[in-house]
Amino acid sequence: MKEYEQTQTINAPAEEVFGWLSDVDNLPKYLPPVVDVSIEGPSAEGAPGQRIRATLEYPEGGSTFDSEGYLAVDEGRKRMEWGAEVERDYSGWLEVADAVDGQSQVTVHLNFGERSVEPEIREQTPEGRDPLAGGVSATLESIRRQIEEGAGKVAPPPGAESEADENPLSSG
Asked: Which of 13, 22, 54, 118 has its CA 20 to 30 A from that of 100?
């Protein structure tokens, strides 16, 4: 299993940051390839939270597609968990913690198993580049920009468009 984890300091209180991040309507504002998200109902049996549908767009390939997965929000722990409900071996979580001087720490963690798109993405990426790590960085920078500056999100890193034929919730 391949895992990715990165943390970003945000100049805002953890409660405020998590409140904004956990609002499903804000997901397209900070997840680089996501352009629309909707709650479709309860998740599949055995999966936590709710089923969501995401529309992704990859500018380099010009492709747009929809996919479903689950999203669970734990307000008490300031934690969100997501993943693919079926067929793919992918999950992740985001957690917001208090930091010094009214700041917060946002941590994103992704898990890619054998049935994820991670091996395919690595095969299609030039040596020395990791579009999945770049995608996590772009997401965290988008969060910081939205909350601190009211600015737009960062574009997906080059190479991420190779995921466009797969379930977006199984690719990050």
From this structure: 22
Whether this prediction's pTM lies above 0.90 is answered by no
Cα(first)–Cα(last) distance of the chain, in Å?
14
Task: Give the three-state DSSP class for 154.
Answer: coil
Please, what sign has the CA dihedral across residues 9, 15, 21, 22? positive
Give the largest CA-CA distance in the chain.
Answer: 44
The answer to whether the Cα torsion of 19, 53, 132, 117 is positive or negative is positive
Under 8 Å between Cβ of 22 and 73? yes
Report residue 55 as tokens. Answer: 């529309």
Residue with tokens 């900070």: 30
